[in-house]
Design goal:
Structural class: mainly alpha
Number of helices: 2
Shape: globular
Length: 62
């Protein structure tokens, strides 16, 4: 079962997330999931580690 987290953003960052969602016809949740995945992938790449993950159901990438 997936774990749920809450995120609190300042107004400026929230507007950026909303704009990305609107521009890419995604939900804000999908945008945040992709940004989190990208950040974790970047950290893993910098550390030289690789952890396989299941493909996401989002067809569109930001």
């Amino acid at each position: 079962m997936p774990t749920r987290f809450s995120v609190v953003l300042d107004e400026s960052r929230a507007r950026e997330v909303e704009a990305l969602a609107r521009e890419n016809d995604l939900t804000e949740e999908a945008v945040l999931r992709q940004l989190l995945d990208l950040g974790i992938d970047t950290l893993e790449g910098e550390r030289g580690t690789d952890s396989p993950r299941a493909a996401e159901s989002d067809d569109t990438s930001v």
